[in-house]
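Margin note: ligand = glutathione.
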Amino acid sequence: MLRLFYSPGACSLAPHIALEETGEPFEAARISFAASEQKGPDFLSLNPKGRVPVLFDDGFVVTENPAVLRYLARKFPNAGLWPEDPQEDARCLEWLAWGSSGLHVAYAHIRRSERYAGTEAGKADVVETGRRAARDVWDQVETRLAASASTWAAGRRYSVADPYLFTFWTWGRGPNLAYDMPRDFPAWTAHARAVGERPAVRRALEREGLALP
Ligand SMILES: N[C@@H](CCC(=O)N[C@@H](CS)C(=O)NCC(=O)O)C(=O)O
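Resulting structure:
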């Protein structure tokens, strides 16, 4: 049995959506950050990094969004979540890598400044730096999507890059960034609305208690 450990609204939303897209049965195991469940012994025995997502597949454990998303796409090829064309394959991987090393890390400077500084002044500086970095990468995503002729991020077809980008879109409208997404990021918002029309996405959003774009 597949089990996804997720926390509502966290980056685990992307594999949560991808799992729904596969149509396979899975268990969604909710981890409460408010109760610090990601730091408890049970969770740490699965993922010593203390982070979601964690995908458990019959004894095999995989973490890190790019790896989890690719694993799901490869394991369930009929869902068509990974492009076959070499250029679209590279584009999909490029989005996943940039998401985890660029967008996520910029955001973490705001949401988790304690990782990067030990004093209150240092943390405030990290948050300010994170705000500039996040705006820069959010703007870059908008520019790329606006220049694309396709509805989907990696090419002609929907892929795991789309729910990953969608997850960052939801962070843009969230309290830490509080961007006016439709006004400032219209191409990304059009993308998020197209993603949000998919039944799999609606099911995952409903389970996590999140609003549609
Ligand atoms: N590099 C990891 C990052 C995972 C990560 O930072 N997850 C966050 C949620 S978005 C988390 O579990 N945070 C809990 C914590 O920092 O205590 C990935 O891309 O999957």
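Residues 10-11, 33, 38, 50-53, 64-65, 100, 104, 112 surround glutathione (CB under 6 Å).
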